[in-house]
């Protein structure tokens, strides 16, 4: 058949909608570029902060900075890989969080593209990053975009970095994305996500509590004397802090607990239940509660004449909710507690008399410090589970 030709003149100017799409795309790419740069900077700062924190918790020395450059480059690589993976999914950021991830495409469906013609990917989330037909191609495209950005846009020399290293970062983040997809599409995934969020927040509260105590060490030493408090810093580890539970994830609806909670803070108020670690010795808890009290007093002094921030109330944990497990080794070096830290009655009752403990340094005078009962308020004594019949008055 004879082909037919259109008599309409050739369009030499892009349609307004196309121009608008291109302008929007360029604006989004520019925003993504700024977001990526900010993400790299945030990750570098986070890693530096984490190194300092781990050093404090593990009693390590920060003078050795021989691996600082490697750590910074690793953070840059991870940020580049993750940014490429997000962009090739065509997913917008909502604040600092990703929007909904794309569903796998039906077999034979056309691949998506952005307004600039860049291919967008719909991974097969039911598979791993190396399985199926789509996922390996997606990872390959991610590596290509990462190398392009690393050498052109961010001057991060990736020429000497192997594909295996970049793939490892991509595989790790793919698993994170897959969990997010499951969280947005399945009930089991949603529950896992909610559980993780709650655990992360509980861990964050433990960390904040430990950090607040460390800030009061100078005041503690000023009151009780430098010579009498040697070694107190070694007792302040995040893993040795009590948990603060909101009761959202697995609420206790028993009449006994509800009556207890109502007595503590009332039924209509939100609050965190401070769940004790039964392995901690009374003298260790007294040090912790003293540091906490100093923090409260110093905060009250600083807040005088200013608008005070409302704090969610805490209340002593219900006896049936206490943690009876043995102490977990703390920090990167898996630090074990000293004998001073462990309650002998707990060890006998739970069959942990032979547990391996850390050797107590001879110069740690903190083990001999006697803090008088007068240093504690009635609220403090409630957290300690203390009463005059249970403990000798050490005034």
Tell me about this structure.
- The protein has 395 residues and is mainly alpha-helical.
- Helix content is 48%, strand content 4%.
- The protein has helices at 16-58, 68-87, 134-153, 163-185, 187-214, 217-224, 255-265, 282-303, 344-350, 378-384; strands spanning 93-94, 97-98, 243-245, 272-275, 314-316.
- The strands form two sheets. Strands 3-4-5 form a three-stranded mixed beta sheet. It has a two-stranded antiparallel sheet with strand order 1-2.
- α2 (68-87) packs across α3, α4 (163-185) packs across α5 (187-214) and α5 (187-214) crosses α8 (282-303).
- The longest helix has 43 residues, at 16-58.
- It starts with 15 loop residues before the first helix and ends in an 11-residue tail after the last helix.
- The relative contact order is 0.08.
Keywords:
4% strand, 10 helices, disordered C terminus, 395 residues, disordered N terminus
Give the helices and strands, then pairings.
Blueprint: H1 16-58, H2 68-87, E1 93-94, E2 97-98, H3 134-153, H4 163-185, H5 187-214, H6 217-224, E3 243-245, H7 255-265, E4 272-275, H8 282-303, E5 314-316, H9 344-350, H10 378-384
Parallel strand pairs: 4-5
Antiparallel strand pairs: 1-2, 3-4
**Straight-line distance between termini:** 109 Å
Count the DSSP helices. Answer: 10
Order of strands across the main sheet: 3-4-5
Number of strands: 5
List the helices and strands in order.
Answer: HHEEHHHHEHEHEHH
Low-confidence stretches: 1-14, 54-67, 387-395
Hey, roughly how much beta strand do the residues contain?
under 5%
Task: Tell me the overall shape.
Answer: elongated
């Amino acid at each position: 058949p004879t082909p037919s030709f259109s008599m309409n003149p050739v369009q030499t100017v892009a349609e307004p909608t196309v121009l608008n799409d291109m302008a929007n795309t360029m604006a989004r790419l520019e925003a993504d570029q700024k977001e990526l740069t900010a993400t790299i900077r945030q990750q570098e700062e986070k890693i530096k902060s984490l190194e300092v924190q781990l050093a404090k918790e593990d009693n390590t020395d920060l003078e050795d900075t021989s691996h600082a450059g490697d750590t910074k480059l690793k953070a840059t690589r991870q940020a580049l890989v993750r940014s490429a993976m997000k962009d090739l999914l065509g997913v917008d950021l909502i604040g600092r969080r990703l929007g909904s991830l794309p569903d796998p495409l039906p077999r034979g469906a056309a691949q998506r593209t952005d307004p600039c013609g860049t291919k967008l990917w719909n991974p097969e989330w039911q598979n791993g990053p190396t399985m199926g037909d789509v996922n390996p191609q997606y990872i390959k495209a991610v590596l290509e975009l990462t190398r392009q950005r690393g050498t052109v846009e961010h001057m991060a020399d990736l020429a000497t970095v192997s594909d295996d290293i970049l793939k490892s970062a991509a595989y790790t983040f793919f698993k994170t994305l897959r969990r997010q997809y499951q969280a947005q599409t399945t009930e089991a995934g949603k529950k896992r996500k909610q559980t993780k969020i709650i655990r992360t927040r509980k861990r964050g509260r433990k960390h904040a509590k430990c950090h607040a105590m460390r800030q009061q060490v100078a005041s503690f030493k000023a009151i009780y004397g430098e010579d009498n408090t040697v070694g107190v810093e070694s007792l302040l580890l995040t893993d040795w802090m009590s948990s603060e539970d909101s009761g959202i994830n697995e609420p206790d609806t028993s009449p006994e607990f509800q009556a207890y909670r109502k007595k503590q803070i009332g039924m209509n108020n939100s609050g965190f239940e401070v769940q004790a670690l039964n392995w901690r010795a009374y003298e260790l808890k007294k040090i912790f509660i003293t540091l906490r009290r100093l923090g409260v007093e110093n905060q009250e002094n600083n807040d005088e004449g200013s608008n005070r921030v409302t704090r969610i109330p805490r209340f002593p944990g219900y006896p049936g909710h206490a943690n009876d497990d043995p102490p977990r080794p703390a920090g990167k070096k898996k630090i074990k507690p000293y004998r001073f830290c462990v309650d002998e009655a707990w060890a006998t009752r739970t069959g942990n008399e032979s547990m391996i403990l850390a050797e107590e340094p001879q110069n740690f005078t903190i083990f001999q410090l006697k803090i008088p009962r007068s240093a504690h308020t009635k609220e403090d004594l409630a957290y300690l589970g203390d009463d005059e019949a249970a403990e000798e008055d050490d005034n």
